[in-house]
Design goal:
By secondary structure, the protein is α/β, with parallel strands linked by helices. The protein has one domain: NADP-dependent oxidoreductase domain (TIM Barrel). The chain contains 11 helices and 12 strands. The strands form 3 sheets. It has an 8-stranded parallel β-barrel with strand order 1-2-3-6-7-10-11-12, surrounded by 5 helices. Strands 4-5 form a two-stranded antiparallel sheet. A two-stranded antiparallel ribbon has the order 8-9. Helix 1 crosses helix 2, helix 5 packs parallel to helix 6 and helix 7 crosses helix 8. The chain is globular and about 50 Å long. The structure holds NADP nicotinamide-adenine-dinucleotide phosphate (NAP). The site of NADP nicotinamide-adenine-dinucleotide phosphate (NAP) has 29 residues, from helix 9.
């Protein structure tokens, strides 16, 4: 199953998306119930890869609790380090919801909690590695990651965002420690509007690396809405294809990524059961070459994409 489930929208009450104020119950009790239902349904649908992070509120705790209770032997868990969740479940929190810190101390602090996911923990990632944070030049951090990799037999990865994704992926993939490549996995933002990493991703896949796609629905911008009238052409094309394949536009957006990049996995960012079931319909069809060409032509300028992405609100 090439679909994984990400817990970014499941573990905390406010998240970056374009939803209008929906009337969902934002209590921790309701979120935990939803998280367990989502994880169970995902497993039933055949999903075996689950991605979380300490900054996803209760995401890591829910995943650990679910995994401990269900004890499935065939799931692969993935988490990250480098961002701290600040909102503390305060609805409508006005400060920064997550704060980045790529220091050795933060790695050690977050690993001391995340290691509870072992031995199902298959992948440990630097959360949003950037040139700015200089984490890829931090020898103490890289040495510690290497030590964790060897001691616990886990894969190491980076996740990337922003206009420099392609260059960052290349730099990270060239880092070697003790004559072996340090990173095995690359989690990247790629969707109809942001395809700037295409060639690098193909090279990484060719070299046998794991490529995981996130934000395949551009945080919900692929769905018709009034905030982005400039995407009318995209909405028309997606509607037509959705009709043809008897699926939602979400499945078309996910299928585009699968058929065009052929990644190891694409993450569903579904926040409820209905979205998850709709997303899983990605497995019911494939797109032909002419449809892939049409969809790839919807690509936007990367700088424009990221300025729009950075302006999205936490809701
Ligand atoms: N490493 C990183 O820095 C990073 C950053 C982002 C994401 N990720 C990972 O990637 C995963 C997926 O990415 P994402 O959640 O950011 O982005 P996404 O997949 O682009 O968007 C997810 C949003 O799309 C909407 N959606 C999904 N299916 C829908 C449907 N059938 N109908 C209507 N709306 C639908 C939901 O919005 P509503 O909730 O508003 O309904 C959902 O929250 C995350 O869970 C996380 O694991 C990692």
């Amino acid at each position: 199953m090439p679909l994984g489930l990400g817990l970014a929208a499941i573990g905390r009450p406010d998240y970056i998306n374009i939803r209008n104020q929906t009337k969902i119950d934002k209590s921790q009790k309701a979120f935990e119930t939803n998280a367990f239902a989502m994880l169970d349904e995902a497993y039933t649908l055949g999903i075996r890869f689950f991605d979380t992070a300490p900054s996803y509120g209760m995401g890591e705790k829910y995943l650990l609790k679910w995994h401990t209770q269900r004890a499935h032997k065939d799931v692969h868990l993935s988490t990250k380090w480098g961002y701290t969740y600040m909102a503390n479940w305060k609805i409508g929190y006005r400060g920064k919801h997550e704060i980045k810190e790529h220091s050795l101390a933060k790695l050690q602090e977050q690993w001391s909690h995340s290691k509870a996911l072992l031995p199902a923990l298959a992948l440990y990632q630097i959360h949003s590695a950037t040139f700015d944070s200089k984490v890829l030049n931090n020898t103490a951090v890289l040495e510690e990651l290497y030590r964790l990799k060897k001691e616990h037999v886990i894969n190491l990865g980076i996740t990337s965002s922003g206009i420099h994704q392609a260059a960052l992926l290349k730099t990270a993939s060239e880092i070697h420690l003790y004559h072996e490549p340090l990173f095995d996995s690359f989690q990247v933002t790629y969707n109809l509007f942001e395809q700037s990493t295409h060639n690098v991703l193909r090279q990484l896949l060719k070299a046998g690396k794991q490529v995981i796609i996130k934000e395949a629905m551009a945080n919900g911008r692929v769905f018709p809405n009034q905030q982005f009238p400039n995407y009318q052409k995209t909405y028309q094309i997606l509607t037509k294809l959705a009709h043809k394949y008897h699926v939602g536009m979400d499945a078309i957006a996910l299928r585009f990524v699968l058929d065009y990049v052929k990644p190891s996995l694409v993450l569903s960012g579904a926040s409820n059961l209905q979205q998850l079931r709709e997303n899983s319909k990605v497995n019911s069809f494939t797109l032909n070459q002419s449809e892939l060409n049409t969809l790839s032509s919807l690509n936007k300028n990367s700088a424009h994409y990221w300025s729009e992405r950075n302006a999205l609100q936490w809701n």
